Amino acid sequence: MNALEITNIKVNYHKQTVLKNVSFNVPEGSLTGIVGPNGAGKSTLIKAVLELIPKRSGTVKVYDQALRQQKHLIGYVPQRSEVDWDFPTNARDVVLMGRYRKIGFFKRAKKRDIEIADQCLDKVGMLDFATRQISQLSGGQQQRVFLARALAQDASIYFMDEPFSGVDAATEKAIIHLMKEWKSEGKTVLVVHHDLQTVEEYFDRVLLLNKEPIQYGETQTVFTMDNLERTYGGKISFLERATVLT
Amino acid sequence: MFFYGFMQRAFQASFLISLIAPMLGLFLILRRQSLMADTLSHVSLAGVALGMLIGVNPTWTNIFVVVAIAILLEYLRMLYRTYSEISIAILMSGGMALALVLMGLNQGGATLSMNQFLFGSIVTISEQQIWMLLGLTIMIGLLYLIFRKPMYILTFDEETAFTAGLPIKTMSILFNVLTGITIAVIMPIVGALLVSAILVLPAAISMRLSKSFNGVIMIGIIIALTGMFTGLVGSYGYGTPPGATITLIFIIIFGVTTLIKKIVLQIKRSKLLNSKDL
Fold first, then answer.
1. Quick check: B173 and B77 in contact, CB under 8 A?
2. How big is the A-B interface in CB pairs under 8 Å?
3. DSSP-derived secondary structure for A17-69
């Protein structure tokens, strides 16, 4: 069963086309990496799918229904840099933000919700930092707070925008662990990713993108040197080339 | 001083403004909209000038014009996402220009009244203004209690708020409208040129003192009350414009708290170093 059906997405920015002809289906319970060079439109694609930026054309179906009717199934983990980390709040309150769809936006969080928030923080190794002001956390810890918030959301489809960017080894491990856990629970995960060396290890499906889809399918089939050359236009580094070939 | 009716009303107004300012100010700062308050105050001058020109109570024309511009600002913010200050620049200068043109068309006694709106006047606060301010304070207080969580999420992370199903556009417009109404109501008291400072400074100072959301607002209210009351007394004593006096008091508080914070940090650091040496 397809969790997501994306058809013919096109995005323009100031009359310039930055993304076109994007059509692909994402099976339920898959881990999909969206890979491509800088400026390929990877984050733009996620944002257009989630209607965070306007699309020129295209449709998105979530479990066969329009996205607007299925928003409660969506969890979004933005890039860390898109949020003001000087915001006067602590880690637990950020995680609770993920619970408010379930609590109700106009209701107070109950003891049970706070317990759930703490469990989520514990799962990513951040319980000791629950009352820490978020600006006092390291980049990796901030990313883990975001993960805990996504966990608290308990969504069916997760969109993650460069979650591995600038994080420490412990955080990377926590992200991978969580992604695999979500997959085992039948949840669907789409991740904007830039590190070619880890693609095969992390994802079972890959979308190679450079302003339009170059190839999409199972990682084993799609993640080939030939397709990467087509995606990156020959700008692939020696190290990355060696990794893919081995 | 407290036996004069106008001073009593000035203190009543200051008390109410002190309750409103940190709530709105904190959201304005966190939403990177501190300058929006300044823009709306410039535009509100056009509202006042329009009222004077057509012979309608300036407060009402002011509210009407400011609300319309507050909605337009949100539209422009969406349109110029990457250069959001463009909308501020256009509307700030446009509002001021329109106010000057309307004043020019209304030859006569408008200049004196206009001065009152530019610099504020505690002598002219009417009973009606106090009631209006009280209504506004109750409304903002209630809206804060009801919308605190959604606004908090929207302000922290607009994109996630949208994917979580919050009506972010409507909420943003309502927030702008509420800021506009507040500016229109308190502008005659503190003056158009400094109304944004009075809204933003208490929250800006308290953000340096507390790291929790409620803490910032509570400390902000205390700072606002201190600054407003001291400013009023100073304004009465020295015959200086109230808005300017209050703003200067806030800036002094800002300087003093920054200095104290630095000293405390220095003491903590040296204590830590000493304990390590031992």
1. no
2. 69
3. EEEEEEEEEEETT-EEEEE--TTSSHHHHHHHHTTSS--SEEEEEETTEEGGG
Q: Are B24 and B178 within 8 A, CB to CB?
A: yes
* CB-count exposure of residue B243 (10 Å: 0-12, 13-18, 19+): buried
Distance linking the first and last C-alpha atoms of chain A: 33
Domain B5-195: CATH superfamily, name plus number:
ABC transporter involved in vitamin B12 uptake, BtuC (1.10.3470.10)
Q: At what angle do helices B213-238 and B242-277 cross, to 10 degrees?
A: 130
Contacts of A75 in chain B (CB under 8 A): 163
Delimit the domains of chain B by residue range. 5-195
Contact A30, A183 (CB under 8 A): yes
- Which sign, positive or negative, has the C-alpha torsion A204, A30, A1, A65? negative
pTM for the structure as a whole: 0.82
pLDDT in tens, B156-196: 888 888 888 888 888 888 898 899 889 888 888 888 878 88
pLDDT per position as a tens digit, B44-93: 888 888 888 888 888 888 888 888 888 888 777 777 766 667 778 888 88
Cβ neighbours of residue B233 under 8 Å, at least 6 residues apart?
B1
Chain A CB contacts of B153 below 8 Å? 97, 100, 105
Q: Establish if A105 touches chain B: CB-CB under 8 angstroms.
A: yes
**A88 and B211 in contact by Cβ < 8 A?**
yes
Of A142, A135, A124, the residue nearest A89 (C-alpha): A135
